[in-house]
Fold this sequence. Notes:
By secondary structure, this protein is α/β, with parallel strands linked by helices. It has helices at 32-42, 58-64, 81-89, 110-123, 165-178, 185-191, 211-224, and strands at residues 3-9, 26-27, 30-31, 48-53, 71-76, 97-102, 125-131, 138-139, 145-147, 155-164, 197-200.
Amino acid sequence: xxxxxxxxxxxxxxxxxxxxxxxxxxxxxxxxxxxxxxxxxxxxxxxxxxxxxxxxxxxxxxxxxxxxxxxxxxxxxxxxxxxxxxxxxxxxxxxxxxxxxxxxxxxxxxxxxxxxxxxxxxxxxxxxxxxxxxxxxxxxxxxxxxxxxxxxxxxxxxxxxxxxxxxxxxxxxxxxxxxxxxxxxxxxxxxxxxxxxxxxxxxxxxxxxxxxxxxxxxxxxxxxx
Length: 225
């Protein structure tokens, strides 16, 4: 079984502010993307890594990943994350399972990567996630609460999201044909009519998007040391 990781690192990081894109900000002594790539490079079940980044950052990402043995390609992203994923998927050859992961989620655990792979092998599609801790409200355009969903049924989707290659490829091609933009990879597969299995993750597997997340990320690293 051939397993490849698709690392998404083409985001602009507007919510972070500043001139440096969020994936290249420092956590401890390394850039966020370095932490992420090293985790997948160490994973025994991963055969290769494709990094999707912006055209102007390709050279920097090449330098960043120079010592990582499993990086097979660095390619350019598109105008939307979904188009960037499709660009990466089209590069993969002889792939059985693909893991799609946010480059700014540096704290994913090895055991969670493996569980996603095994689950995708059995079910065809899997998503790492955690149950919500807070009560969630649905509001209308005026800010009025219209519903309070049962918290027991609500999960926060994380990455990696893992899929059999033929499933995710067909789902993305179908979405392209239908001009459908999903909120994550699983939503594209769901739209295609495939059930996706949720896998229990870890609350430390945060996506670093805002300055507050960066503070939390440094706290997680300090606690791990």
